[in-house]
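Posting for a labmate who doesn't have an account.
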Amino acid sequence: MTTVRINGKEVALRICPVCQREVLVLITDFATGKRFCHLCHEDPDSPMATVARKIHDHASAGTLDQYPLAERIADLNSKK
């Protein structure tokens, strides 16, 4: 299993149950209980998928500190 270093800690990537890719963040649909990643989300431009994708990309590049919490919240609250 692949890991990424975040703030000096090794964090294991998760396996998406839908597409079997390694990702940092899995999205859970609480209505159905299904879990999936930003790569196989039915709406890849949704705020959830956008934030999950940015977290994954920044963490993989070692630049997660360049995507601060305030920006993540703004992305989650944004409209298409």
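Reply:
Got it, the structure tokens are right above this. The chain has one domain: 3-77.
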